[in-house]
Structures are given as C-alpha cells and as structure tokens.
Write a structure and sequence with these properties.
The complex is a heterodimer of chains A (about 160) and B (about 300). Chain A has five helices and five strands; from the N terminus they run ββαβββαααα. Chain A is α+β, with helices and mostly antiparallel strands and about 160 residues long. Chain A has a five-stranded mixed β-sheet, with helices on one face. Chain B has about 300 residues and is of the alpha+beta class. Chain B has two domains: about 5-170, Uridine Diphospho-n-acetylenolpyruvylglucosamine Reductase, domain 3 (2-Layer Sandwich), CATH 3.30.465.10; about 180-295, 2-Layer Sandwich (Enolase-like, domain 1), CATH 3.30.390.50. The longest helix of chain B has about 35 residues, at about 265-300. Classes of the chains: A alpha+beta (about 160), B alpha+beta (about 300).
Chain lengths: ~160, ~300
C-alpha cells in the first residue's frame, strides 16, 4: 500500500492505496464521488475526465498513488452547493444530455475551455470536446450548451 | 480492466530513479503515462515496478540555450510545449507538432521525453525532433550521453536508450529563419496520424547554407528521413517548384504497412502530398520572414 495525501474538491484526503488503484476508482470507490464515470478505461472516451492542478486529465490513466500533494476537482467540485453551474444549467436547457454518461467529462472539458477562453468559437468548442465521446451522438446540443454557458458567464445571452 | 499488480516508487531525484532501474530490470519509467498506462490496463505491458518521475522537478521546463536553441526537460508536458513563448519562438515546429497530439487532457499529462522514449512510429514528437536534428540527452549509471535524433529511433517502439538509462532532456538547434512545415492526416482530430510529414531548415555554420531535413511518420517502423527528397531542397531551392519534386521523390523513401486505417499505397500517396505541402509551407514562411526583414532594414 502507498500512502497518499491530496486535496479533492477542496477537502484534504489521506488514504493508503494499492499501486494499481486508478484515480477514477479511488474517487468512486474510496471517496464515493460517483459523478466521475468510467467508460473505456484506456484514455479514449473522456468520461472520467477530472481536473488535476486545474488541468483536465483522464482519471483512468492516473494512479491514485501518483497524486501526492495534488489538487483534484471532480464534477461534484464544479457543482454549486445549491442549484446548478452555468454549464450545468445550459446543458439542461439545451437538452445536451440523453443518457448522461459522458456529461461529467464534457462539463469538465468545457469548464477548462471557458476558464481559458471565455468567448470560444464553435470550432474551438468542438476542438475542446473532441476527446470526449458521446455515444448518444448529441454533439450539436452539447456545443450549443457550451456556447450558451459561455454567453451566460459573460453576462449576456445568445443572439 | 486494471493493470497487473506492480510496485510503485515515487522517485525524488534522478539518481533514485536510476537506482530503481538497476535494482529491477523489469521496472518501467512512468512519466505522463498516456501510452504506458493504457498498455498496462490492457495487459499489453506488465512492468514489475513503476518508477514515477513526476516529482523530479529538475526534469521539467524550457531553457534558452546560448546558441539560440533550447534545452527542454524530458518531463515537459505537451500543453507546455504548445503554449511556451520560448518554444513557439525558437522551435515552432515542436510546438505545432505537440498541438496535434491527442486531446487536451492527453496533452496536459503526456511528456516530451515519454513520447520520444515510447517511439510510436506514428507519433508527432519523434518526427519533429528528427526534422529539427535535435540532440537527446540520456542519463545512466555511468553519467550522461548525448544522442543525435538520427541515431535515436531504431525501430518499432525501439530506441537507443539502454534499459538502465532515462531520457532527461532534448536540445534543439537554433532555428532563426523560421523555415519549417508540419502536416498530418488522421481520420479524426486527435487520432494518431495515418501519415504525416515535417520539414525544417536548420541554419548552417557561418557562411554555410542551411540544411533542410525532411521527415515522414506513420509510414514505416519509425519516423524516417526522406533523404531522396531532401536532395531537391538545398537551401536556395526551398521553393514551391522544388516542393513538387521533393513530393514525388518522397513516396519511394518509405515502406508503409497496410492496416484497417489505410492501404500501403494510400500512405505512400499521402507522404508525397504532405511532403509537397510542408515544403510549400516552409517556403512561404521563409519568404514572409525575409520580406518582413527587408522592410525593417529599409525603414529609416
């Protein structure tokens, strides 16, 4: 077992983990943060995307043992205590989820995009979520939702 | 799906990591893990020990070298290659190649050294360092040695690194005249390339003309120099006209395999087209640069 201390969604966490425990499993099984979804488990689908040190990362391709001193933010950490974030509201308004499996990863990827680029073009949005697969193929609504959330965060609304 | 059990060492120094490789011949270095961990999850790789380099701070970062080139730590992430002002200024080919890798979450973790040591024949960064004529610095129990990119890639996932060596840095040469090009074809954004090409004109010694280095990737067991095409591209001949001749010669330089993504014939065709494209791109950049310089020199 490897001892690891890290911060998850603003909370200090200390655990002993087997070396092969992925960050995704650690979040879901050890911390009960089941918002992070596990899809392909080899870095292709993007469902398990979380923020590590503020940057998006595949939690299936990181071992929990690697996360000593790291700051991890999951979809739970991007959700306000009450209500929904601008991205979450926009996903609901635009019907940007069908089965919902890809949604947490999509929102994490979109969050990183909007933090760096508050007014992305449609092409930039598409590039930012290119690593997140929606098997329901609801991409048009997802892109629309991210556009709407970007506008809402800027304090305006879509034309 | 999870990897076979392994021991984990969080190395605090390069020496500690090198010691782990000596102690366990089945140990593997863990850097970004964006290729190694999928292979472990699918049980295609079963290292007995993972030696995690991520806490070895001396391996990260981009430094300006006195000669106008760069010294880049092996642990530098792809995202940092893309965004670093120094890399964009002094090795723009490397920044552009890095931007073509996978997706943002992959680029945030994946490292320069990891990509080079993994040596996937369709990967972007091995092709870029080969086109740049970069030097790779390896550390081992006996000290450091410098390996020319031309001598580093030996075959499919095979490099000149010994089992007890770690790639620690990449040195890129001065690249002042901005003549370079990079292009690839992939089925979807972020996929490995079906084929790609890169070209760089590296300034020669004082009074000597630049060397033009042309590379194809995804079309052989390693990134390859297109030497039969390079002969059409002496420095003065880095022109759109020469691009077509280089493109025609390029197809004969590679021995692509056929797979589910493309036939060998299609890959050879792509190498021709992409070679012509990157040489035109390089020629265009050089012309724009020289026009800009002459405007500056004419202004009062």
């Amino acid at each position: 077992m490897i001892s690891v201390r890290l911060t998850v969604n603003g909370r200090a966490v200390e655990r002993d983990v087997p070396p092969r425990r992925s960050l995704a499993e650690f979040l879901r099984e050890d911390l009960g943060l089941t918002g992070t979804h596990v899809g392909c488990e080899h870095g292709v689908c993007g469902a398990c995307t979380v923020l590590v040190g503020g940057r998006s990362a595949r939690s299936c391709l990181l071992f929990a043992a690697q996360l000593e001193d790291a700051t991890v933010t999951t979809i739970e950490g991007l959700t306000p205590a009450a209500g929904l974030s601008a991205l979450q509201s926009a996903f609901r308004d635009c019907h940007a989820l069908q089965c919902g499996f890809c949604t947490p990863g999509m929102i994490v990827a979109a969050h990183e995009l909007l933090a760096e680029n508050p007014a992305p073009s449609r092409e930039e949005i598409r590039a930012a979520i290119a690593g997140n697969l929606c098997m329901c193929t609801g991409y048009v609504s997802i892109v629309r939702a991210i556009e709407q959330a970007a506008a809402a965060r800027r304090g305006g609304s879509l034309p | 799906m999870k990897p076979a059990p392994f021991a984990y060492v969080r190395a605090r120094s390069l020496d500690e990591a090198l010691g782990c490789l000596v102690a366990d011949p089945e140990a593997k270095i863990l850097a970004g893990g964006q290729s190694l961990v999928p292979m472990m999850n699918m049980r295609l790789a079963r290292p007995s020990t993972l030696v995690d380099l991520n806490a070895v701070a001396e391996l990260s970062g981009v430094d300006a070298a006195a000669d106008g080139g760069l010294a880049i730590g092996a642990l530098t992430r792809h995202t940092d290659l893309v965004t670093s002002p120094l890399v964009r200024e002094r090795a723009p080919l490397l920044a552009t190649a890095a931007a073509h890798i996978g997706h943002r979450a992959i680029r945030n973790r994946g490292t320069l050294g990891g990509s080079l040591a993994h040596a996937d024949p369709a990967a972007e960064l091995p092709a870029a360092v080969l086109a740049l004529g970069a030097t790779l610095v390896a550390a081992g129990p006996g000290g450091r040695r410098r390996i020319a990119a031309d001598d580093f890639f030996l075959g499919l996932f095979a490099t000149a690194l010994a089992a007890d060596e770690i790639l620690v840095a990449v040195e890129t040469p001065p690249h002042r005249d901005a003549a370079w090009g990079f292009a690839e074809v992939a089925r979807r954004a972020g996929d490995f390339a079906i084929a790609g090409a890169a070209v760089a004109a590296i300034p020669g010694d004082v009074g000597r003309s630049a060397r033009v280095r042309l590379v194809a990737f995804g079309v052989d067991d390693r990134p390859i120099r297109l030497t039969a095409a390079e002969i059409h591209l002496g420095d003065p001949a880095l022109t759109p006209d020469a691009a077509a001749a280089a493109g025609a010669a390029a197809a004969g330089c590679c021995h692509p395999a056929a797979d589910v993504h493309a036939s060998a014939e299609y890959r050879r065709h792509l190498v021709s087209v992409l070679t012509e494209q990157v040489v035109r791109e390089a020629a265009g950049r050089r012309a724009a640069r020289r026009e800009g310089e002459s405007r500056w020199s004419q202004s009062p």
